Amino acid sequence: MSFTTRVVGQPNTLDYRVFVEKDGKIVSPFHDIPLFADEANGIYNMVVEIPRWTNAKMEISKEDPLNPIKQDTKKGKLRYVRNAFPHHGYIWNYGALPQTWEDPDQTNSDTKCVGDNDPIDVCEIGEAIGHVGQVKQVKILGVMALIDEGETDWKVLAIDVNDPLAAKMNDVEDIERYMPGLLHATNEWFRIYKIPDGKPENQFAFGGEAKKKEYTLDVIKETAEAWSDLISGKSNAGGIALANSQLGNANTVSAADADNIAVGGIRQAAPVIDQSLHKWFFISGSKI
Question: If you average pLDDT over residues 225-237, what whole number do you get?
Answer without folding.
Answer: 97
